[in-house]
C-alpha cells in the first residue's frame, strides 16, 4: 500500500505564494514515474495543473504557466508545487498523484486565495 501525504495548503492573499509538498512512502520508487498536481473546486471536474514526466520535464495548464513550478526529489520521494502570484481563481483543493498509471493520490490540501 502506497501512502501519499500532502501538506502546505492554507489561506493566502492575492499575489502571495505557497509551496505544496507531496511525500510518498519509502517503499515506493519515484524513479521514472509520471506524476501530477491537480485541483478541484466544488461542482467541477478535477483539473490537471502540472505534469512531471519521469525525466523531470514539466507541462502546465495555461492558467498557471509562469506562476507555478512543479519539481520532484526522487531521493526523498517528494514532489513539490511552488505557487506564486496566486489569484482568487486558484482557490481549490489541490491533489497530487505520484503515479498516473496507478492512481496513487494524496488526501488533498485546501488552498484559499482571498483578501
Overview of the structural elements:
With 115 residues, this protein is mainly β. The chain is 0% helix and 45% strand. It has no helices and ten strands. Strands 2-10-9-4-5-6 form a six-stranded mixed beta sheet, with no helix packed on it. It has a four-stranded antiparallel beta sheet with strand order 1-3-8-7, with no helix packed on it. The chain is globular.
What is the radius of gyration computed over CA atoms, rounded to a whole number of angstroms? 13 Å
Neighbour order of strands in the largest sheet: 2-10-9-4-5-6
**Tally of DSSP β-strands:** 10
**Rough shape?**
globular
How does the SSE layout of this entry go?
Blueprint: E1 4-7, E2 10-12, E3 18-24, E4 35-40, E5 47-52, E6 58-60, E7 68-73, E8 78-83, E9 92-97, E10 109-113
Parallel strand pairs: 2-10
Antiparallel strand pairs: 1-3, 3-8, 4-5, 4-9, 5-6, 7-8, 9-10
Features:
single chain; 10 strands; 115 residues
In brief:
Helix content is 0%, strand content 45%.
Amino acid at each position: 500500500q502506497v501512502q501519499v501525504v500532502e501538506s502546505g495548503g492554507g489561506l493566502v492573499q492575492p499575489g502571495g505564494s505557497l509551496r505544496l509538498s507531496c511525500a510518498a512512502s519509502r517503499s515506493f520508487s519515484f524513479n521514472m514515474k509520471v506524476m501530477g498536481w491537480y485541483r478541484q473546486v466544488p461542482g467541477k471536474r478535477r483539473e490537471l495543473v502540472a505534469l512531471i514526466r519521469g525525466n523531470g520535464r514539466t507541462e502546465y495548464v495555461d492558467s498557471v504557466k509562469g506562476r507555478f513550478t512543479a519539481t520532484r526529489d526522487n531521493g526523498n520521494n517528494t514532489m513539490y508545487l511552488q505557487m506564486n502570484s496566486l489569484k482568487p481563481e486558484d482557490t481549490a483543493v489541490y491533489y497530487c498523484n505520484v503515479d498516473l498509471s496507478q492512481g496513487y493520490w494524496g488526501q488533498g490540501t485546501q488552498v484559499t486565495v482571498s483578501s
